[in-house]
Automatic annotation (TrEMBL):
<dbReference type="InterPro" id="IPR053140">
    <property type="entry name" value="GDSL_Rv0518-like"/>
</dbReference>
<dbReference type="InterPro" id="IPR001087">
    <property type="entry name" value="GDSL"/>
</dbReference>
<feature type="signal peptide">
    <location>
        <begin position="1"/>
        <end position="25"/>
    </location>
</feature>
<dbReference type="GO" id="GO:0016788">
    <property type="term" value="F:hydrolase activity, acting on ester bonds"/>
</dbReference>
<dbReference type="Pfam" id="PF00657">
    <property type="entry name" value="Lipase_GDSL"/>
</dbReference>
<keyword id="KW-0732">Signal</keyword>
<dbReference type="InterPro" id="IPR036514">
    <property type="entry name" value="SGNH_hydro_sf"/>
</dbReference>
<protein>
    <submittedName>
        <fullName>Lipolytic enzyme, G-D-S-L</fullName>
    </submittedName>
</protein>
Length: 424
């Protein structure tokens, strides 16, 4: 009898704990799909006229469609697309958005017959994205093989300022008049290499899938690599890891710095958005800091004072601490050689002997401090053994700052996968 009274009392308390008209959800919820980031392009704001580099994009588009090509890393049976209005000051209206498979790399704007899918947002074909916000599409059934190449087409029905972009896309995007989101191909009236509003592609991945983020600057973004050929070191690392059920996403921004803004906000400000908040994240490779060292006194920021190595190290420590709070493995990469960087261009003053001393001090700390979970010595991979402050000529894109395709391949091949992924 006492047991029955206790049971009845517990049932009464349970009922009283909920407001009238609200019922409890079933205890056995269905297992939710595991979404993983498979491709990303970190959003940037456009910069003002007069900066050393042009944005190379129009100020706005109106009643036009842009088709953007991306090679994912992990595949899956369903996909979602993320559009960003991060730096918009007005709402962004997308009148239609589609995703489809494409032919092989470098084949233009053609999509494969039978693969075109309409993207919806909350069940609607049209989405308006508030300033500073992103929009995740509904899941769409589309069989995506690992390393598949997809086209995301976005129709912009009204005058749309291009305030959120990714400058160094290294992939041709195609712009045509009117709503061409479902067109088999776009006979482009204009092409770009930048990304516009497209920030991520997610896949419903196989169980236990993991994501590695490459967090860096132009050397991660792929400056100096061949456009439309996916030759950046994160692309080539993705090829090595795909059979291990590991995605590689590129969170590089050309011109990025750890401590300061300009071509994108500083690393400390964007770490959560571009890296730690990506679904499925397991590890991050940090290769950033050469612009913090090289920009002061150069054509980029001629009035800025020289950077002390300790300031950069302090920035790394902040990133390490935040990765650990998220239970994310963080791997430090040494800064690559840069003697003679940009000397044959209009961008003067990037390299000096004192800046080289700062790079060496930072690299010494990366190698010896033990504060990262692991270290990748990209400096040792790329430098000329006979002239250690310079690239090996075979790996140099020609500007003495960025590797070429062979250099990026050497970087990807030099990464020990067991060290990168640890024991998890």
């Amino acid at each position: 009898m006492r047991h029955l009274k206790i049971t009845a009392a517990l049932a009464l308390l349970s009922a009283l704990a909920l407001p009238a008209g609200i019922t409890r959800a079933a205890d056995s919820n269905p297992v939710q799909p595991a979404w993983s980031a498979s491709w990303t392009a970190s959003p940037q704001p456009v910069w003002e006229a007069g900066f050393a580099l042009s944005t190379n994009i129009p100020a706005s588009l109106s009643n036009q469609t842009i088709r953007q090509i991306a090679r994912i890393s992990l595949g899956g049976k369903r996909a979602r697309v993320v559009l960003s209005n991060e730096y918009g000051t007005t709402p962004l209206t997308v009148g239609a958005a589609h995703i489809a498979l494409t032919a092989l790399a470098g084949s233009g704007s053609d999509i494969l017959a039978g693969t075109d899918r309409v993207l919806t947002f909350g069940g609607r074909d049209v989405v308006t994205i508030a300033p500073g916000a992103s929009a995740f599409s509904d899941p769409v059934d589309l069989e995506l093989a690992p390393l598949a190449q997809v086209a995301v087409s976005i129709f912009l029905p009204q005058a749309t300022p291009l305030t959120t972009f990714h400058w160094d896309g290294k992939q041709t995007a195609y712009i045509g008049p009117g709503n061409l989101a479902a067109a088999p191909l776009i006979k482009a009236s204009q092409t770009l290499e930048a990304r516009l509003f497209l920030s991520a592609i997610l896949v419903e991945a196989a169980p236990a899938a993991r994501v590695v983020a490459a967090f860096g600057d132009s050397i991660t973004d792929g400056a100096g690599s061949t456009p439309d050929r996916n030759q950046r070191w994160p692309d080539q690392l993705a090829q090595r890891l795909v059979k291990q059920n590991v995605a590689v996403i590129n969170a590089g921004i050309s011109g990025a710095r750890v401590l300061s803004d300009k071509m994108g906000v500083n690393a400390l400000a964007r770490f959560e958005r571009d890296v730690l908040n990506q679904p499925g994240l397991d590890s991050v490779i940090l290769l950033m800091g050469i612009n913090d060292i090289g920009w002061p006194g150069s054509s980029f920021t001629p009035q800025d004072p020289a950077l002390a190595a300790q300031r950069l190290i302090d920035g790394y420590r902040q990133l390490i601490a935040r990765a650990r709070l998220h239970h994310v493995r963080i791997v430090g990469a040494t800064l690559t050689p840069f003697e003679g960087a940009l000397q044959d261009t209009a961008l003067k003053g990037y390299y000096s002997a004192s800046k080289e001393q700062t790079r060496q001090a930072v690299n010494h700390w990366i190698r010896s401090s033990g504060e990262f979970d692991a270290v990748i010595d990209f400096d040792a991979v790329l430098r000329d053994p006979k002239h250690r402050r310079r690239f090996l000529p075979a790996f140099d894109s020609g500007d003495h700052l960025h590797p070429g395709d062979r250099g990026y391949r050497a970087m990807a091949d030099a990464i020990d996968l067991a060290t990168l992924l640890g024991s998890r």
